[in-house]
Amino acid sequence: MKELVKIIACALVDHPEEVVVSETVEKEEDRETIVVHLTVNADDMGKVIGKQGRIAKALRTVVKAAASREDKRVVVEIQQ
After folding, report:
1. What whole-number distance in Å separates Cα of residue 48 and Cα of residue 12?
2. What is the pTM of this model?
């Protein structure tokens, strides 16, 4: 999932060299949740989030669809 988020984010931003993606795994009672942390340049935040969060929502939808094929739960967090 980490690679997928990085590819999409790099295509969206003006400073792809500053895109940092990290992954952590959180264990709940019976399921694991993969949390993908996306960090971009402050100037690129608007491009990643989009108007009214549309691009961020689309990014999360694509990642969830890819994760569902592998029967995993993924959460994408966008940070500055």
Report:
1. 7
2. 0.88
Token pair, residue 52, equals 């009214």
Domain containing 8: what range?
2-79
Structurally, how many domains does the chain consist of? Answer: 1
Q: Which of 78, 67, 79 is nearest to 34 (CA)?
A: 67
Residue type, 44: D
Say if residues 63 and 9 touch (Cβ distance below 8 Å). Answer: no
Separation CA 61–CA 2 (nearest Å) = 14
With beta carbons less than 8 A apart as the criterion, state whether 41 and 16 touch: no
Q: Find the CATH number of the domain harbouring 47.
A: 3.30.300.20
pLDDT band at residue 61, thresholds of 50, 70 and 90? very high
- Do 73 and 33 touch, CB atoms closer than 8 A? yes
